[in-house]
Amino acid sequence: MMVDIDLSQAPFSLLDEAGRQRVRRGVDLAYYDTDEIILDAGQTGEHVFLIHKGEVAELDTATTERIGHYTAGDLFGAISILNGQSRYRFIAEQESLCYLLPRSLFETLCREYPVFADYFRQSLTDKSRLLTERRTAGGITMAGFMLARVAECMREPRLIDADASIAEAALRLREIGADSLLVAADGRYGMLTKTDLLDGLIGQSLDRATPVLGIAHFPLITVRPDDYLFQALIAMTRHEVERVVVVEGEQPVGVVELTDVLSFFSSRSYTVSLELEQAEDLDALARASARLPGLVKALMAQGVKLRFAMELLAALNGRIISKAFDLTVPAEHHQDSCLMVMGSEGRGEQILKTDQDNGLILADGADWPGRAEQMDRFIERLLTLGYPRCPGNIMVSNPQWVDSLGGWRQRIDRWAERRDGEALMNLAILLDAHAVAGNPALLESLREALFARCSHDELLLSHFARPVLSFSTPLTLFGSLKRPTHGIDIKKGGIFPIVHGVRTLALERRIRPTSTLARLDALVADGRLEAEFAADLGEALSLFAELRLNQQLARLEDTGKPEGDANLVVVQRLSTLERDLLREALHLVKEFKQRLSYRFHLEYS
Amino acid sequence: MLRSLRRAADRRRQINGRYGWLFNPYTGDELVAIDCETTGLDPRTAELVSLAAVCIKGDRVLTSGALDLRLQRPASLGADSIKIHGLRGVDLNDGLPVDEALEALLDFIGNRPLLGWCVDFDIAVINHHLRPRLGFDLPNATVDLAQEYRRRMRRTQPQVEPHMAFESVARSLKVPLMQRHTALGDAVTTALMYVRLKQGACEAV
């Protein structure tokens, strides 16, 4: 067939090859001149239009407002068919060549492919959910979990004699840090849980010396080691218990707890953090740290909201750095020093490991011989844990970023006085600082000093806010996405304006949290932003971050290292749906920039 | 002159035959864009390799109902023409015999006017096969897109000598080239160019 029609994107990707072939055979071509009305409001929809070339605007005839904008590869008119008539007017903004899918064929396809029909019935939010679900279903990661065996997730069985007393059992539970024990009584095994102990002591008023045999449960609910993990989950659900015993032959070989199963299904975040907490030396720490990218990928595959993934990752990264600090710095210095991480790490917005940005605050008058060498060693250790050096040398090995509390205060005064590019950047970096090790009170008092000096200084705030405008939003005059072939820079065009704008507002309103999303919440509580606008900004930021993360993960898979510029998003490669979302998000950024330039008088210089 | 005389004679002969209706004047608003790939450039010796026709109604090119035929391997199929249309002998194994293809074409176009890029050549090749078999030439009115375009250019931009290659005309009318040198692709591109020309689009290249 001759028609050069791209059917690899949604919704046509929801059809099978036979269905796509019918689309190919069934479409007509039509050419519309500039300003020609393709489909008017109130007209009955006779075709679904798929743009091959050109641009089409969707207008509300009542309010003359622009509803939407479609370009090559986009599709419109389906809703008009489903509703019987078009609500809006579609007009060609440029000469447009469209494929016309006749109504009868469209309806047949909708009947025969329910997924295809669903695609059109859903609103945008539903569409994003659909996208996530498809990603989940398509990801092999989930399948990996579904196919996990019991043996991969069981704990050692902890046994206790049947004639041991309740007191002994309680002590034993405490020692091993578990929730349950197996009671062995003449070849039989029973389950004894903390709840059973409580019941026995309080409910039945038994004596502490009573043997546990009387309160243990027989017989056991069991699974076999080569059963699927979800079978264990089903057994627990069915019998309303929180643990099952794994038996091989007659012998118990392990216990599977509900929390284990759940954390296994929630991509093993729990086990990573457990491994991290248990790490006693650098090697163990490095092993745990190396598992983070896999964790991120699994979380994304399951469609976990990026915000929660970021928080989890920030917490884990913080723990790694803090552990490394504890391993390097002698305990006596912990109280009078504070290690802070800054930049995206400080805001808790780095997902994959980026450069280390860190600094050290010392208590006034603290005496610490050999500090420089220890700091050098600390940096080296972070390097082995997979955190590359900061190209701007914002690291504790640089004396510029190590000072006493008094020294830091003077620096802030100096920077606020100078207001040049470098000083403002340093202030911005410091504003995002987050304490990860040592004494966090030091950072709090430093932050207090920073707010006291800066939050009322209108001139400083205006200078501070200015970089928000330094990159233009990649939208065309008509409000559609720009599409240069090398891609649009979403860090400059999307992430930076939001992050820095929110940071400026946080400085003005003395808001302590450092993550952008937490700052947005605080700004809403403060009354500085409307809840709806703040929520939209947060969503937009998550979208940008997710797009970037996907590219980073893809690169990680290709080269083993996050190389190249993951900030460049090539619009042409996105699906129509992702493109829609991106466009809306960039419009929000534009509005936010306008608000900021109004508030901080950026239009005058 | 000669052509109309010939057509009148054909008509008298065919008036009660199976194809008499083809000679009735057409009163609708449709047009059929046609294109054929041939084994050579001389209409007296060239044989048909493939044939395509697509209907134009108003702004629309009805590709869904297009006719796209491949013929049986003609004797004169040679390397030179294969290089252009890309249809090798093997590709034509399940092609139609010329009689059947011509019948299908006649049934498709009926008495609607024909549009083509240098349409006289295509008509000449078809007639060359049609007359020995059915005893008449295609009686349809014809529109030559190349001529129409040249005329339009002369009227709107008399000082510019138009560049008359198929590709550059398509570019000037902002029509994407569908699969070039396949009969259907060229027919569709021609149809789109015609629609554009009717809409008044015309720019120098």
TrEMBL record, chain B:
Q: Which domain of life is it from?
A: Bacteria
Q: Does the keyword Nuclease apply?
A: yes
In terms of CDD domains, this protein maps to:
DEDDh
Pfam families the UniProt entry points to: RNase_T
Keyword line: Exonuclease, Hydrolase, Nuclease
Indicate the secretion signal residues: none
Question: Per its record, what are the GO molecular function terms?
Answer: exonuclease activity
Give every Exonuclease domain span: 30-203
Q: Which NCBIfam families match?
A: PRK09145.1
> What name has this protein been given in UniProt?
3'-5' exonuclease
Whose protein is this, by species? Answer: Modicisalibacter tunisiensis
